[in-house]
Design goal:
Length: 382
């Protein structure tokens, strides 16, 4: 990617947060809270997620018990929720880019610490399901092993001490506000990867805000750069999504001259929350017509400031007419860039055409071309 931006600071170690930064804990936490609140006759409101991100389990429980006026104590709530959470730790997925980042830093012998507000027992259990993680961190420090959790700097200072590296030479990577606050209070450099959408403006204390781990540029921090980009693209573990083409905002062809065959987000909320917004590419199959190259945006379209996360694939082919209602299947093979805002419509359009050229070229490389034959694109319902 572009290295036009300057070096920010040279660091000697990286301290990573766990929940929301490396693993998609929100997915299971929402499910567990929903099930437990239902027992109390209450309906879990997903918006509460904002309030509990980055908190310790006890703080989380206090908030939920208060907000939902539950007839139990905070301790009782923790006792009830704990086994439900443990049952789900095996289902927590690593966030896109997490394994790549950990492997890259450890391959280059960058000292790595894990600093989580979660209690030690939770941390141990959660990372036991992520292959190779436990061995990779030279220091693991949990919320119950320091006097005060984040936003206190304690956990970060203790991590630096155990790494044997000055706090000012540590880079913290964090999704939550308490984490960013704690890292800065410890005198460290902090990259924020907000796990809650559209909150970038709240992260002013961070030294950099990125939209996912895929966008981290270690060279800004004097660390070895990733070397896995190929012609402006980052190969991903492929994933699939499909369904009938639905009506969007009617803006694609009219305003941009770029039609996007929107997929319904219904039934895909889990998949969507797990994949960061951004520009991706791959192969698209239209039931009646064939397989085509495809470039797409996933997200809130900052230029139009949408309220919903949408999936907008542009099939790189001239069609005679529209194809609403037809089954469309996508295999996503790589990543190009984060979603961005633009100062003019022309510059947004120019950027999308650049994305198209990048995707078109990349999809001829054997590494990406081979997925044109992905079984998912040949599904029997087609
Ligand atoms: P909407 O906001 O409803 O998605 P668009 O202006 O983005 O409207 O137009 C998208 C529609 O145009 C698609 O649903 C599809 O039926 C049609 N279409 C025609 N050519 C293409 C193409 N190359 N890629 C995507 N959609 C296309
Ligand atoms: N919208 C944005 O606001 N920012 C972007 O960076 C952006 N990138 C896009 C990249 C591609 C390849 C495509 C197909 C669309 C992109 N859009 C982006 C979405 C565009 O705003 C959207 O398709 C229209 O608003 C039509 O709904
Ligand atoms: Mg569209």
């Amino acid at each position: 990617m572009s290295t036009a931006k300057a070096l920010k600071k040279v660091v000697a170690a990286v301290i990573l947060d766990l929940d929301g930064t490396l693993i998609h804990t929100d997915g299971i936490l929402g499910d567990v809270l929903k099930a437990l609140l239902l027992k109390y006759g209450k309906q879990w409101d997903g918006r509460e997620a904002q309030k509990i991100v980055g908190k310790t389990p006890l703080e989380e429980a206090t908030i939920v018990v208060e907000d939902y006026e539950l007839p139990c104590s905070t301790d009782e709530f923790v006792t009830q929720i704990t086994p439900l959470l443990y049952d789900q730790f095996c289902n927590i997925k690593a966030l896109p880019g997490a394994n790549r980042l950990i492997k890259h830093l450890s391959d280059h012998n960058v000292p790595l610490a894990l600093a989580s507000n979660s209690p030690r027992a939770y941390v141990e259990s959660k990372i036991s399901y992520q292959q190779g993680w436990k061995e990779t961190f030279s220091v693991i420090i949990a919320g119950d092993e320091v006097r005060a959790g984040k936003p206190s700097p304690d956990i970060f200072l203790e991590a630096a001490k155990r790494l044997g590296i000055e706090p000012s030479r540590c880079l913290v990577i964090e999704d939550s506000l308490p984490g960013v606050t704690g890292g800065k209070a410890a005198g460290m450099e902090v990259v924020a990867v907000p796990s809650i959408p559209k909150q970038t403006h709240l992260y002013i204390a961070a030294d950099e805000v990125i939209s996912s781990l895929l966008d981290l540029q270690p060279e800004f921090w004097g660390l070895p750069p990733f070397d896995d980009w190929i012609d402006g693209t980052l190969p991903l573990e492929t994933w699939h999504i499909g369904g009938p083409v639905v009506k969007g905002f009617g803006r694609g062809s009219k305003v941009l001259g770029i039609p996007t065959a929107n997929l319904s987000t219904k039934g895909y909320s889990a998949l969507l929350s797990e994949h960061p917004s951004g520009v991706y590419f791959g192969w698209a199959r239209l039931s009646t017509q064939g397989v085509y190259k495809m470039v797409m945006s996933i997200g809130w379209n900052p230029y139009f400031n949408n309220t919903e996360k949408t999936i907008e694939p542009w099939l790189l082919h001239e069609f005679d007419g529209d194809f609403y209602g037809e089954e469309l299947r996508l295999v996503i093979v790589g990543y190009i860039r984060p979603e961005a805002n633009f100062t003019s419509l022309e510059s947004l359009i120019a950027k999308i055409h650049e994305d198209r050229r990048i995707a078109e070229r990349a999809l001829d490389i054997p590494l990406y071309l081979k997925y044109k034959d992905d079984p998912y694109l040949k599904g029997s319902s087609l």
